[in-house]
Design brief:
Structural class: mainly beta
Radius of gyration: 14 Å
Strand content: 35-45%
Low-confidence stretches: 1-8
Number of helices: 2
Order of helices and strands: EEHEEEEEEH
Length: about 130
């Protein structure tokens, strides 16, 4: 059966950083963008990620339903400080939650944070320039 391809709206890119590392993050700050996330993608460039901007601080959780690539997620407080990092397996419905109230989540290819020595307590630069979640 033939299916009509669904066009994916291009999300704006924002520049973030941690230590000496630059991150090109797609901005997911609306309900629709947060719900779709990185679903159905088969790959992502090494320096690319997706930053989720939530409307309020809470113990947000992420899952990998319909997500094809393994990801690591860093949950961030309102100042961009990493609360915790979780590795997530593709196409699972396991919940990966913030260790404390988070305002943001940053998804990168799995192992990106560990491979660069980035851990809880470090601050992601550029968060202060992001628009509010809506």
């Amino acid at each position: 059966m033939w299916q009509v391809p669904v066009a994916r709206a291009e999300l704006p890119l924002v520049e973030l950083g941690v230590g000496m590392h630059r991150i090109e993050a797609e901005l997911a700050h609306t309900d629709q963008a947060r719900q779709i996330g990185l679903m159905k993608r088969s790959s992502m460039p090494p320096q690319r990620g997706m930053v989720f901007v939530f409307t309020q601080e809470a113990r947000h959780c992420m899952w990998m339903k319909n997500t094809l690539i393994p990801l690591s997620v860093a949950f961030l407080d309102r100042d961009g400080r990493i609360l915790n990092i979780a590795d997530m397996k593709p196409q699972t419905e396991d919940s990966h939650c913030a260790a404390a109230p988070a305002r943001y989540a940053l998804e990168m290819n799995q192992g990106w944070f560990a491979g660069r020595g980035v851990a809880a307590g470090e601050r992601i630069r550029g968060i202060e320039r992001l628009p509010a979640g809506r």
